[in-house]
Amino acid sequence: MKNINKNYVLVGLTVFGLGFVYFLASSVVPKVFVTLTKAAPATVISLADSYVLGERLLAKADGVEKCVVNVFIMDATGKGVAGKEVSLEGIEGITPSSKATDKDGKASFSITSMTEGTFTVEASVGGAPMNRSVKVTFRN
What we know:
By secondary structure, the chain is of the alpha+beta class. It is 26% helix and 37% strand. The protein is built from one helix and nine strands; from the N terminus they run H-E-E-E-E-E-E-E-E-E. The strands form two sheets. The protein has a five-stranded mixed β-sheet, with no helix packed on it. The chain has a four-stranded antiparallel β-sheet with strand order 1-3-7-5, with no helix packed on it. It is rod-shaped and about 100 Å long.
C-alpha cells in the first residue's frame, strides 16, 4: 500500500512540475525576453537621413489658404527622433516657426502668405541647418 501512495505522490509531483515548467515557458520567459530586447528610442540625429517634405506646396496668396511642410528628424537607422526642436524659415507666415518633433520624429508647419511668388523654405534642428529645403508657391 505504501508503494501505491508513493507512486501517486511521484505522479502528482511530476504533473505539477510539468505544469510549472509550461507556465514559465509560456508566460514568464517571453515577457522577460520582450523586456530585455525592446529597442531603445532613437536619440542621435543624422542630418543626412533627415528630410523635409511638402504635403501641400501650392496655395492661394490670401493669407488664409495654407501650404504644409513636414520635417522628419531621423537617426542613422531611419528611426524618428522625438523631442528635437525644429525651425523653419524662408518666408513670413510660418506657424509655428519652431516646433518639437513627435514620437515619429515629425514636425509639421503651416505657411500662409499675402504675397504671390515661389519661396524656398529651409529647416534647421537645434540651430544646425539641415541643408534640406522645399519650395512653396502662393498665387492669386
